[in-house]
Design a protein that fits this description.
- GO terms for molecular function: RNA binding; structural constituent of ribosome.
- Helix 2 runs antiparallel to helix 6 and helix 7 packs across helix 10.
- The protein is extended, with a radius of gyration of 30 Å.
- Strand 4 and strand 5 form a beta hairpin.
- It is 45% helix and 11% strand.
- The strands form two sheets. Strands 7-2-1-3-8 form a five-stranded mixed sheet, with helices on both faces.
- The longest helix has 34 residues.
- It has a domain of 171 residues: Ribosomal protein L30/L7 (Ribosomal Protein L30, Chain: A).
- It is an alpha+beta fold and 299 residues long.
């Protein structure tokens, strides 16, 4: 080595066969990558070309039978819904024990918690029942809303009770549901792109809004401060009592999206017997205090 240069005689040597093998492997890898890309592209094109799905004649017959059966059920529910005794309306609403948290969890709210469980195919549901479900905010399966315990609302629930189940939740269930699954409408501020506005209801938000988790009390105060509601607990107590600002809180919260129960038995599709009333061994209709166990399993 002269002049501080590199002594090539002591530099590591790589066999010529190794270099050739490396070059061949790199070429093969490039060819495989190109082939995989062509295969994925061809698969996408073939999938996109299948604009129509083949349906057997039996599927049309089955769909027709489902529609006819659901229409008959809807007519039956229409008849029984007109004369519904609401005995719980005559009784005084339970007093909320806000001071005693342990006792508070046992108090039943003065509202219904309604969960939609059935009706996957929208075209199989009679149009009147579809309108009622959307009016209640139950346009999708595994969604839940709060409604006041009134004669009118109970009549509506009876008309769609083959798709929903409902009952009186405890205050603790309401609190858990709001803390874990509450979402509200938000939007960006034009003057300040980094800022965020929280809408009090759908009318204020319009059609363009962002579904955002209700994560702090500031969001409540910004949207409902003028109504005297400044924290999440205020919403919990207002909903549980069915107070004067119940509709304000209900409009502020988006319908709750729930998950399927964690037990393997409930992961399967609903069977025809599941659409029976809860009191007759099914999953639908009024289930009273048992609504807590169902909702807590779906939160």
């Amino acid at each position: 080595m002269e002049g501080g240069g590199i002594d090539l005689s002591t530099a590591p040597r790589v066999a010529e066969t190794v270099l050739k093998r490396r070059k061949v492997n790199e070429k093969l890898q490039a060819q495989r990558a190109a082939a995989n890309l062509r295969s994925r592209k061809s698969s996408r094109e073939q999938t996109a070309g299948k604009s129509k799905r083949f349906r057997s004649p039996q599927s049309f017959t089955l769909a027709s039978r489902v529609r006819v059966r659901n229409a008959k059920i809807s007519k039956t529910l229409e008849k029984v819904a007109e004369d519904v005794p609401l005995r719980m309306i005559a009784s005084a609403p339970p007093a909320l024990q806000e001071e005693d948290a342990m006792q508070d969890t046992q108090v039943r709210a003065n509202v219904f918690l309604v969960v939609r469980l059935g009706g996957n195919r929208q075209d199989s549901i009679p149009s009147r029942q579809t309108r009622i479900l959307k009016m209640l905010g139950l346009g999708q399966n595994q969604t839940a809303v709060f409604v006041k315990r009134t004669q009118q609302n109970l009549a509506l629930l009876r008309r769609v009770q083959n798709y929903v189940t409902y009952g009186r939740p405890t205050v603790q269930t309401i609190r858990s549901l709001i803390q874990k699954r509450a979402f509200v409408r938000t939007g960006a501020v034009d003057a300040d792109p980094g800022a965020q506005v929280v809408y009090a209801n759908r009318k204020a938000a319009g059609d363009k809004y962002i579904r955002t988790s209700l994560s702090n009390n500031v969001m409540v105060e910004d949207a409902l401060g003028e109504e005297g509601l400044v924290c999440i607990e205020d919403i919990v107590q207002e909903i549980a009592s069915g107070g004067s600002d119940f509709d304000v809180c209900r409009g502020f919260l988006l319908p709750f999206r729930l998950s399927l129960p964690s037990t393997s038995r409930d992961h399967r599709r609903l069977r025809p017997t599941d659409y029976k009333a809860f009191t007759k061994g099914g999953k639908m209709g009024y289930r009273g205090d048992d609504i807590d166990d169902l909702v807590l399993a779906m939160v």
